[in-house]
Hints:
The chain has helices at residues 14-22, 43-56, 73-86, 103-116, 155-158, 222-230, 254-260, 278-287, 298-310, 326-338, 356-372, and strands at residues 4-8, 38-41, 91-95, 121-126, 138-143, 146-149, 184-193, 196-206, 211-216, 240-243, 246-247, 261-264, 344-348, 376-380, 392-397, 404-408. The protein has 410 residues and is α/β, with parallel strands linked by helices. The protein folds into two domains: 4-157, P-loop containing nucleotide triphosphate hydrolases (Rossmann fold); 184-408, P-loop containing nucleotide triphosphate hydrolases (Rossmann fold), CATH 3.40.50.300.
Amino acid sequence: MNHWVIYIDNNSAKKNFIEDFQKGKIPNELIEYQNKKGLLYSPFTLEKLIDEEDKHDHKIISTEIQSLETMSSGEQKKALLHYLLKEKPNFIILDNPFDNLDISFQNELKTILKEYSSHISFIQIASRKADTLSFIQNFGRLTFDTFTEIQDSTFEKQTKKHSFSGLSIPQPLENLASVNNPLVQFKNVSISYGNKKILDNISWTINKGDFWQLTGANGSGKSTILSMITGDNPKAFGQEIFLFGKLKGSGETVWDIKKKIGYYSPAMTNKFKGRHTVENMLISGLTDSVGLYTIPTEVQKRVIKQWLLVLNLHDIKDTYFNKLSTGKQRLVMTARAMVKHPTLLILDEPTTGMDDNSAALLVTLVNKIAQETNTAILFVSHRKEPNLEPKSVYALEIAPSGSIGYITTP
Ligand SMILES: Nc1ncnc2c1ncn2[C@@H]1O[C@H](COP(=O)(O)OP(=O)(O)OP(=O)(O)O)[C@@H](O)[C@H]1O
């Protein structure tokens, strides 16, 4: 049985390639897959299934106990894999299969795929070379929209490097020194959904200037914790959660909280569908709006120019954001969350789906923010991110009475 890996970088037209492939527009080298039954293991498939379940009100993957939509991202990927394997396809396209998966499920997934590799052919699309499945013997690369077969070792030479200018991060426009410390405090917080216990007695404090990484296996409660900080989870009420010195739910508006927090998660990128230039995307970060509704002031423009110079993006300041590669979009979005110098910057799995070089660049930016500003950083990721320099790690560990949390060294 033949298996392929296709390496992509953040300039590859992955989505088009997959769509064409599914319609039978297949490169010659992969012609053996023509007219075969193929399925796609990808966030796109999950989105479609959630949508279908919602529209037709019937369960495809959801169970009596839990809907697909409310599962954590790792749980969704596990459920999808089992669903696809049951369909007995001839081949499965695995779109960055390890993204969002913790180490233990990554290993489990590798074992399952190896087991099935004798009768299902796999085409793995990978941003990171280290993710290559061990049983794969054919290699390809997608450069923009062109597929080429390669020798495994040529991959590294093809990647183009982007780097920063060496300039310092611009100073804040407003001084937020008056914000109360600690920024976030959880005191014995326990959360359940029905009978399902999620968090058990979490006590955790984030102070000004801290640099935390929040880790934990799939389903351990990382997103649940974030949603309690950023303001959208009703489960926070009645708990002892203090944000910027005030008990959550004691009169502060979501807007008050959001003003002090810079937040970025890759899912947010989809909100920016319109024609926003790179420069305007950054300017809108100063006011936290999706578009630009007022004419920016000269001071705002000046500070954003400095950011563009720091990021080495000044040459493409007038390019539309949605025309950028994924790697550059992530950089812009991370910087956008930071330009207002929030007291707390939350980055939720920011490197998901990025190639090695782009991920490394983003990590460099986060370390730079930590070194040169007073902003506290909360970097959420189950992947040990090479070269990230958090001062402490808060780890969640799943247990029958809900996840427990503990502080550990990076
Ligand atoms: N509305 C809900 N109803 C039932 N269970 C829920 C609901 N929302 C979340 N959960 C459960 O809470 C647990 C924690 O989910 P959460 O998304 O916080 O985990 P996570 O650590 O972010 O996981 P991942 O790394 O997979 O994204 C999961 O088991 C999830 O299924």
